[in-house]
Specification:
The chain is an alpha/beta fold and 445 residues long. It is built from ten helices and 13 strands.
Amino acid sequence: MITYRQIAAAAGLILFGATLMANAQTPKLDPDSFLPPPPAWRGASEKLIAAATDPWITPSEQTGLTATPTFDETIAWLKKVDDKSPLVRMEKMGVTPQGRELKAVIISKDNDAFQASKPVFLIQAGIHSGEIDGKDAMLMLIRDICFKGRDDLIDKVNIVLVPVFNADGHERSGMYSRPNQRGPVNMGWRNTAQNLNLNRDYMKADAPEMQAMLALMAKYNPDFYIDLHVTDGMDYQYDITYGFDGWNGLYADSPAIGKWLNDVYRPKADAALKTSGHIPGPLIFMRDEADLSKGTDLNAFAPRFSHAYGDLRRLPTVLVENHSLKPYRQRVLGTYVLLEATLKALGSDGAALKSAIASDRALRPKTVAANWKEKADPVHWLDFPTIEGSEADAPIMGGKTMRWTGKPGPVVKIPVYGSEPGLQLSVPKAYWVPSTKPDVIARLK
């Protein structure tokens, strides 16, 4: 069967071709016309939206949370906050291949040096810049911290925000960049100007953007890292999904960190989202969208991905995947709630997290897992809230695809399959890098 991701990709090609052939007399195609209808939604998080007369309304709020500002507009808005609030300062963290200055935004009650007792929360938006929910959610949260009496959120936490990680991709913006995603109306591009996927670059660090990010990590030594994305693929009721190494005790190279994330962070995040009207869930990688009994996969990720890299680095890392078929407004508000819940968890349980980090950093494992293979039996079972749908012919793709109705379906119990290492390799006492590899040496440093 052809997946929804494939049919959306085909729709994207049609839309792209349509834009090439369009002229002044041809109306624009509505990207949402290719998508299934969204379920009706109302939530308590809607109260977070600023009034139209608010002097600190964000650029996205001015559009009703339907569009996102350009890179320059984003930085200009943050510069205004920096000028007015002592809690915010911006610094240059790097330069993109097209010459844009990457910015890190520091939100803190400390002076130049952070208090060691406070957890440092690194928030990253726009690694895939069409998936930009995190940027607009964070602008709203900064506004509320600086000007709306929510500065208590940073009493015990310091924030380092990268509002747009893939800045060049962000400016390659269009209506049809992500044809399987409902908003914003203008979406950036997945890859960088060098056609590199930053969320495959953590270990090799080819991109100057990634080299800048790793240098930022070394400078601020964060205690919690969140990487904000939007899904591809099938329809379901969840609007905010997220994952980490250690979910249900699986795959944690940093076991104490994984336990804190699963036992402390996850219940707090889920409760906050549910209270605000959102539906949180785990990362979903369904084997067959037309036959849910085949289950979903939760395999060990390689450390080229953010959350697996963080686990290897002893850095608590959460990968967030908002559901692409939910409206942009709903996704941004859910992201705000998740970020706020994270700040509260770090404020109340940061000491325990720091202790877990120290415990994992003291580990000296003698082996490393390799040659991962699928486990035959499920690693656990999931109560999965469905959206009604059925198979339909997709002539353009030469097969069948799923057509979703937007109507909530039943909750079904599905198996979750995992993986296990087929080999344990002995860790060497040291690695030798010859002097003929100065680029490798520079990256390792």
